[in-house]
Design goal:
Blueprint lengths: L10 H6 L24 E2 L5 E2 L4 E2 L3 E3 L2 E7 L23 E7 L3 E3 L5 E4 L7 E8 L3 E3 L4 E2 L8 E3 L3 H9 L10 E5 L2 E9 L9 E2 L2 E2 L10 E9 L2 E9 L5 H13 L6
Length: about 260
C-alpha cells in the first residue's frame, strides 16, 4: 500500500479514540448494501452472533458494522498552533458508524480503512476528523512537514469548502450539496499533481494528511453534524480498480451519526 500517513501527534488521538460498546456483532456480507447491518453473522467458532455495531479494531476486519468516535484531544497541548491553537475550544466527541465489506483492514492507530489486497488496490477510507480550526495552503507543495497554513478558515462547512475551492491549485469541479447519515454538507474532489518531485509533501490543508503519491484523488465530504464540521475522505489512484472505488463510496454511504 502507498499509505504512509504522517499525521500530527495531536491529530492521531483526535482521530483514533474509539467508543466503548457492549454489543458483540458482525455482518456476513462482502457487499456494503443498506441491509447488511441486519444480516446475521457467525462468530469465529461458527456459532451465531448478535447484530449491531462493534468498536473498530486494528487489523483485518470481518464484514460488518463498526463504531468509531471522531474527537479532538488537545488537553495538555500547549504549543500546536495548527491542531490545537490557544483559545479555540475543541468540539465534542462525535459517534460514527460504518459498514465495512470483506477484504478491508484498519491501519493500526489511525482512522484509516484500506484494502487487504496488494498491487493496484492502493486506496483508503479516512473516517474523518473534526476540528474547530483548519488552515488551507495557497501552495500545498511543502518543503517541510506541517507548515503553518497561510489561509485561515472559519469553523463552518462553507468556510472550509469555499477556502479550498478558491485556491489557484484547485482543479476539481464545483462542489455540490450532499448528505451522509442525515448530516448535510458539501462534496468536492481533489487530485494531486502528476509530478510531486519538488515537494517534501503535498498537503493542501492542515490538520489533515498529505497526498499519498502522484495523481492521488481525494473525494471529500464536509458535513455539519450538530453544528460541528466533520470531514470524511476517500482516496485512490488512476489504477485503483473500479470495484474498490465503488466499495469506498458505499462505505461512505453507509455512515451514520447515531448521537446526532
Amino acid at each position: 500500500m502507498r499509505w504512509t500517513a504522517d499525521l500530527r501527534r495531536s491529530a492521531v488521538p483526535a482521530w483514533a479514540t474509539l467508543v466503548a460498546a457492549a454489543l458483540l456483532a458482525g455482518c456476513a456480507s462482502d457487499d456494503v448494501s443498506s441491509d447488511t447491518a441486519d444480516t446475521p453473522a457467525t462468530s469465529g467458532e461458527g456459532s451465531p452472533a448478535p447484530t449491531g455495531a462493534v468498536p473498530l479494531p486494528d487489523g483485518p476486519l470481518d464484514p460488518g458494522r463498526y463504531e468509531f468516535v471522531v474527537s479532538v484531544d488537545c488537553e495538555g497541548v500547549e504549543d500546536d498552533p495548527i491542531a490545537c491553537p490557544a483559545g479555540v475550544p475543541a468540539p465534542p466527541p462525535i459517534a460514527l458508524e460504518v459498514t465495512v465489506p470483506e477484504g478491508w483492514a484498519r491501519m493500526a492507530g489511525f482512522p484509516v480503512i484500506t484494502p487487504t489486497t496488494t498491487g493496484t488496490e492502493d486506496a483508503a477510507l479516512v473516517l474523518g476528523w473534526t476540528s474547530n480550526t483548519v488552515g488551507v495552503q495557497t501552495d500545498p507543495c511543502l518543503s517541510t512537514s506541517h507548515q503553518l497554513p497561510d489561509v485561515a478558515v472559519g469553523p463552518g462547512v462553507d468556510d472550509f469548502v469555499d477556502a479550498v475551492t478558491a485556491q489557484e491549485w484547485y482543479r476539481g469541479p464545483a462542489p455540490v450539496d450532499t448528505e451522509v447519515g442525515g448530516a448535510r454538507g458539501r462534496y468536492f474532489t481533489v487530485r494531486a499533481p502528476a509530478d510531486l518531485g519538488r515537494c517534501h509533501e503535498w498537503r493542501p490543508w492542515d490538520p489533515g494528511f498529505f497526498a499519498q503519491g502522484p495523481s492521488n484523488t481525494w473525494e471529500v465530504w464536509v458535513l455539519d453534524v450538530d453544528g460541528h464540521r466533520v470531514v470524511v475522505v476517500t482516496e485512490y489512484f488512476p489504477d485503483t480498480s473500479p470495484g474498490t472505488v465503488s466499495q469506498l463510496t458505499r462505505m461512505v454511504e453507509s455512515i451514520s451519526f447515531p448521537g446526532a
